[in-house]
Amino acid sequence: MAPLRGRVVVVTGASGGVGRAVVRELGARGARVALIARGTAGLGAAAVDVGAEGGTGKVYEADVADYEQVRRAGERIEAELGPISVWINVAFSSVFAKFTDITPDEYERATAVTYLGYVWGTKVALDLMGPRNAGAIVQAGSALSQRAIPLQSAYCGAKHAIKGFTESVRTELMADRSGIHVTMVQLPALNTPQFEWVLSKLRRHPQPVPPIYQPEVAARAIVYAAEHPERKEYWVGVSTAATLLAQRVAPALVDRYLARTGLDSQQTDEKSPTGVANLWQPADESRDYGAHGAFDSRSSGRSPQLWLSQHRAKVFLALAAGAATGAAALLRARRS
Question: Are 285 and 39 in contact (CB under 8 A)?
Fold first, then answer.
């Protein structure tokens, strides 16, 4: 992919959290950013952020759970901004609760937004990019797409589904030798407003499982993936890498560990529950929540692991060269 300056990039869930940090990063790259979400206050502020960073932002209000709304938004974007080069799916909603405490309607809605929102975004993107045989689709994933945790069955189920869906679409595009690429970015726990506005039925306020990263870490990874979409997926954060590797090696042991620690580690007494819920209606219709949540003091703005992931070829070559040099020195020492 060429640099993103002047290119049209679509971001769903653009009004807050990771999506908000992504559109700022895109603005700094000089992209023409189409912002899709429901909350008008958040969307308007996000568009201002894009312009302040040096890009162009235009708002498209839509509920990603509704295919027709997503399709119409995509067609408007191409008519008003030009051909879409990158489509980034970020939007989601969920319920913090034990599975038995979630109603069927709540579960269906959370799945429609989080899973089908990605499906509809991907379908619209492929329909529009297909005639040009060029473009990239980036799915904002999670370590929870491969390792589920308690109190988040709706979110984990949807993220697992997104991973399976994305792999299927990716292999179909590869079989067709398509010029359109699909990649996924597996994210760690992040300090976003989701813990302020996702429907919660917990007694205490929900929190990300430490270690916690700032949304800008995720944004840099997602935009990098948009510029380098040939990779199957990217891992962000040492906690993501550790979780996914532990799941491969000892999943039953991780089950037992989470049964002991997973409920308490996702709740805090630092503040009271907000009582806000964005499952059915946007929480940022009249208030802008921004990109950050309430855990700035405990969140990191850097991820050395991300740099290693993005530059793994160089790291491998450096390690190989170092090993070769060491072997040669050892051989010379033995000969002498």
Answer: yes
